[in-house]
Amino acid sequence: MQQLISIVVPVYNEGDGLTATFKVLRRFSHRLTQYQFEFIFVNDGSQDNSATLIEQQAKQDSRFKLINFSRNFGHQLAITAGLRYAGGQAVAVMDADLQDPPAVIGHMLKKWEAGYDVIYGQRERRFGETWFKRTSAKLFYRVLQHITTTNIPVDTGDFRLMDQKVVRELNRLGEPDPFVRGLVSWVGFKQTAVLYQRQERKNGVSKYPLKKMVALAMAGITSFSTLPLKLAYWTGGVAIVTGLIGFNVMLFRHSWQTNSLIICSSFFLSGIILVNLGLLGSYVGRIFNAARQRPRYIIASTQGFNQLIAQSHN
Ligand code: UDP
Ligand code: MG
C-alpha cells in the first residue's frame, strides 16, 4: 500500500504565488509516484484571494485541502493547526512562497525511509533576503543555542519532515504561543539535517515584518530559556562586588568622603535588590515551566514489558 505523506503549507496573503505553488506541488507528486500526498493549506486570515484560490484547487484535486482561520493568528499557529489535521505517516511543513523548494522534501523522504524521524532543512545559503534579515537570523539562532538546554539547530526554519509519531507528540502540547521549530527539537527522536539553498521569494513580499520577527524571536527565547529571568542575579552580583571594592578602597585610603560613601552604598544596596529579583526570577521560571504543562518525558520505545502495560502508559 502507498504511504500517505502530508504537506502543511501556512498561507498569509499569498494570492500572487499560489497558482505556481500548486503547480510545483502537483509536479513534485508526479515524480514521487510511490507515495500518496495530501496538501494541507492553512489560510491564516488572508485579506486577498488566497482562500478562493485554494478552494478552487481543492475542487479540482481532492488531495488539496483547506483550513480557513477566522483571522490572522500567525505563522506558528497556522503550522500547529495544519499538523493537527495531517493524517500522513510523514508530515512536511513548507512555506507557500516556494523559498523552500519541494524537491528538498524528496531528499527528506529518503532519510525518513532510512529511519530518521525528523529531517529539518538547514539553510546553507539564503538568496534574495536583506543583509539585516540574514545577519539577525544568524545571530538569533546562535544566541538561542547558548542560552537554552534544548538543542535547537542553527539556521533552520520550519521547513522539515516529521514522522507521524513526532507529530502526535507535538499535538499533545498546548502551548499558547508555540515556537514550533524549538518544540520539534525538544520532542526528540532521531533527528538529522538536509542542507539546502534557500531561494528568493518568487511572488509577493515577506509576511514577516520586523514586529513579527521580534515576536517570534521572543517566543523562542522565553519558551526555551529562563536565563533572562535570572540575569538580575549576575548584574546584582557585579553591583555588590563593585560596592565592596569601593568600601575597601576607602578603608585603605582612610578617606570617608560622603559622595564616595553614597555611591558605594547605592551599588551595594541595589546589588542586594537585584540578587533578590534574580531569586524571584528563578521561582517564576519554575512556575513558568510548570504552567507550560509539557510532558515531563517522552518514551520512544520500551523493551521487555508486557504489551498491555507498555500501551497503558503511553
Ligand atoms: N505566514 C502565515 N501567517 C503570518 C505570516 C506568514 O501563515 O502571519 C506564512 C506565509 O504565507 C509563508 C510562511 O508563513 O507561507 C512564511 O512567511 P514568509 O515567507 O513571509 O517569511 P520569510 O520567508 O520572509 O521569513
Ligand atoms: Mg518566505
Automatic annotation (TrEMBL):
What the entry lists under InterPro entries is as follows: Glyco_trans_2-like (IPR001173), Glycosyltransferase_2 (IPR050256), Nucleotide-diphossugar_trans (IPR029044)
Primary localization class, coarse: membrane
GO CC list: plasma membrane
Top-rank taxon, per record: Bacteria
Task: List membrane-spanning regions.
Answer: 231-249, 261-284
Q: Which stretches make up the Glycosyltransferase 2-like domain?
A: 6-169
- Keywords annotated in UniProt: Cell membrane, Glycosyltransferase, Membrane, Transferase, Transmembrane, Transmembrane helix
Q: Name the Gene Ontology molecular function terms of this record.
A: glycosyltransferase activity
Q: Name one Pfam family in it.
A: Glycos_transf_2
Q: Which family does it belong to?
A: Belongs to the glycosyltransferase 2 family. GtrB subfamily.
Return the protein name.
Glycosyltransferase, group 2 family protein
Species, as recorded: Loigolactobacillus rennini DSM 20253
